[in-house]
Amino acid sequence: MAFISLPNRGLVTLRGPDAADFLQGLITNDIRKLAPGVMLYACLLTPQGKFLHDFFITQDGDSIVLDCEGSERAQDLGRKLGMYRLRKDVRIDVKDENPVYAGDDLPEGLPDPRHPDMGQRSFIKPSDMAEEAFEDWDERRISLTIPDGSRDLVVGSSTLDEGRMDTLNAVDYQKGCYVGQELTARMHYRGLGKKHLETVRVDALPEGAELRSSCRGIGIALVRRALTAETDQPS
Q1: Which domain holds residue 31?
Q2: Are 132 and 198 contained in the same domain?
Q3: pLDDT beyond 60 at 227
Q4: Which of these, 219, 192, 9, lies nearest to 94 by C-alpha position?
Q5: For 157-231, where are the E strands, in sequence order?
Q6: Is residue 1 predicted with pLDDT exceeding 80?
């Protein structure tokens, strides 16, 4: 058994009696699914349905914790949420950098909600497990075509349909209104997306593909839908 330290992670913590209702009207997933021992995955979008941030949501006592991209990205998420706070009784605290660990059998870890093969995530560093290279985790993620935040999704431009985020449990189409819902639902139900992220071999990119993150010869690229069926997936 081994664990991986994930780089550049931050925390945004929400406290106060209105915290859950506040998030419910903003994010793509249903905060009512949150419970002790459960981790959710969700996004914050622009009013036009374009990607801004993705994050993992957990409950810590009376607080709601968002495990997000770190540094300036964490600060930006805090600012974006603060713009919507208005008269809600909620306090938003940002921590630029916070350790996050991934692995298959982490003590006190919670299952990564995006895919069973992504193992677990934890804020607690395992004391009796070997540490593997980040590239081991990154290669697995890419092989499963799982975007890694702004490494693969263009802030202010990408749509959730483009990133296939509904297949990663990031979107609840039954939850009701949230910021960017109209375009997100329309693209999903009408199949309007012309491009999607795909796993590709870096040395055999489909014509016109836009390579995003890559590791050990494979990468995630934005591919035209007409080429999707022809994309040669790595074995």
Answers
A1: 2-192
A2: no
A3: no
A4: 9
A5: 195-201, 210-215, 218-224
A6: no
